[in-house]
Amino acid sequence: MNILLLEDNELFASSLKEYLELENYNITIAKDGQEVLELTYSNKFDIYLFDINVPKINGLEVLKLLRQSDDNTPCIYLTSSTDKETLKDGFNSGADDYMQKPFDEDELILRINALLKRTNKLVKNIVINDIEFDINKKVFLKNSEELRVSKKAIDLFLLFYENKEKIITKDMIISKLWNIDESYSEGSIRVYISKLKDILGSNSIVNIKGQGYKVQF
């Protein structure tokens, strides 16, 4: 699930990105409205989270431009504004929901999921050959039976799946699977990759020499 976050406060944007990624959302950050237009021109997003008071083109105007170009991607405004006219303008510009800063991050997740459900954009379970991955429960299933798979192997699968078109480097794997104060080994990375190959097929992950890994599913 790909989310575009329009937020010019770098610290807040980074913090929110980190939280949402724990829920397995892919987050792209735009610092101003012009960057939003550039990103949406070449990328497809499932939901927008827009601040209003941002540089170049504000959140209200950029959403109006997107709606005028027939972009109906669901949008939630995240703003510190308490002005009723701003709220009215937000919905008139095409917003689907509105949250006032500071907000509860768990409530944001609930609103995102509710909005995606209403717009039929909730992620369905991932099916690869005879294996199903339950997105909500984060478990692998075969013939409706749950497979025993470690959390790190599941996290690695999600990293691969979310970056299917890219080469996954060792640094990306380390950053995803281990905290900064945790130790890791090359052998443990190979063990988790081997486990995923056992589940998904021996050719599901290939080694790109000197660069990293790439999936083939």
What is the number of helical segments per DSSP (H or I, 4+ residues)? 8
How far is the N terminus from the C terminus?
A: 17 Å
What is the total tally of β strands?
Answer: 11
CATH architecture of the largest domain: 3-Layer(aba) Sandwich
The residue-averaged pLDDT reads 87
Count of discrete domains:
2
Strand percentage, roughly? Answer: 15-25%
Order of helices and strands: EHEHEHEHEHEEEEHHHEE
* Main sheet characteristics: 5 strands, parallel
Helical percentage: 40-55%
CATH homology-level superfamily of the largest domain: Response regulator
Q: What is the CATH C level class of the largest domain, in words?
A: Alpha Beta
Poorly predicted residue ranges = none
Which fold name fills CATH's third level, the topology of the largest domain? Rossmann fold
Calculate Rg over CA atoms: 19 Å
Strand order of the largest sheet: 2-1-3-4-5
Q: Please identify the structural class as seen in this structure.
A: alpha/beta
- Global shape: elongated
Short account of what is shown:
The protein is of the alpha/beta class. Helices cover 42% and strands 20% of the residues. The mean pLDDT is 87.
